[in-house]
Structures are given as structure tokens and as C-alpha cells.
Amino acid sequence: MAAVKEKIKTRLKTGDEVVVIAGKAKGQRGEILAIDREKGRVWIKGVNMRKRFERPTQENPKGGVVEREASVHISNVMIFDAKTKKGSRIKMGWDKNGKKIRVLVKSGKELD
């Protein structure tokens, strides 16, 4: 029987601005395009670009080489804190109305 793979829990969301903290793309910033919680990977706009060779289709009759974002492991990414200009961890907090929100650890800025 196949083992059930757990989804990775993360406080990151699509549309967050993040900075890569490890690997070939270290130091690059961008917006999260997609998150794969099963594999624990994120796609970031303009980061970790790879060349893909596409065959001709009706939409693209010539085919050719296209540059696309490749995924980065979620552990190599931190949310970007504009106040400190660095990556920051996220903690959960409560706003004045009792709603759960995400808060940056370094600056205390509310995200949601």
C-alpha cells in the first residue's frame, strides 16, 4: 500500500513578494506565481529561469526555445520585508476585530 504524502504547511501565499535565501538563485526577489504543497515547491516570477524547447503547435507554429520559471524548494524562500530590506519569518497574530492575520517577525508589519 502506498504511503499518504502529507502536504507541506506554509504561511506563504500566491502573490507574496519573496527573496531566495539559498541555492543558485540566492538573493533574487520576485512574486510567488504558484505553490505546490505536495512537493513543497514554489514558482517565483523572474527567478530560476530555465530554457524549454517547445515543439510546433497550432498556437506556436514555429516552436522554439522559451524561457520559463522553474520551481524553488519552499525552504529556500523567505517573505521580503520592505521595511528592513531583508527576508523575514512570518508569525500569526490577531487584529483589532479578532481576525487571524500574518505578521512579519522582524518589523511587526501586518501582511493581510
Q: How is this structure best summarized?
A:
The chain has one domain: SH3 type barrels (Roll). 0% of the residues lie in helices and 43% in strands. The termini are far apart.
What is the averaged pLDDT score? 93
Strand content: 35-45%
In the sheet with the most strands, the strands line up as 6-3-2-1-7-8
CATH class reads: Mainly Beta
N→C terminal distance:
41 Å
**Structural classification:** mainly beta
CATH architecture call = Roll
* CATH T-level topology: SH3 type barrels
List segments where confidence is low: pLDDT < 50 over at least 5 consecutive residues: none
> Mind summarizing the main beta sheet?
6 strands, antiparallel
Helix proportion range: under 10%
Task: Please count the helical segments.
Answer: 0
Count of spatially separate domains? 1
Features:
single chain; 112 residues; mainly beta; SH3 type barrels; 6-stranded antiparallel beta sheet; two-stranded antiparallel ribbon; 10 strands
Please describe what this structure looks like.
- It contains no helices and 10 strands.
- The protein has strands spanning 17-20, 29-36, 41-44, 49-54, 64-69, 72-73, 77-81, 86-88, 90-94, 100-104.
- The model has no long low-confidence stretch (mean pLDDT 93).
Topology overview:
Elements: E1 17-20, E2 29-36, E3 41-44, E4 49-54, E5 64-69, E6 72-73, E7 77-81, E8 86-88, E9 90-94, E10 100-104
Antiparallel strand pairs: 1-2, 1-7, 2-3, 3-6, 4-5, 7-8, 9-10
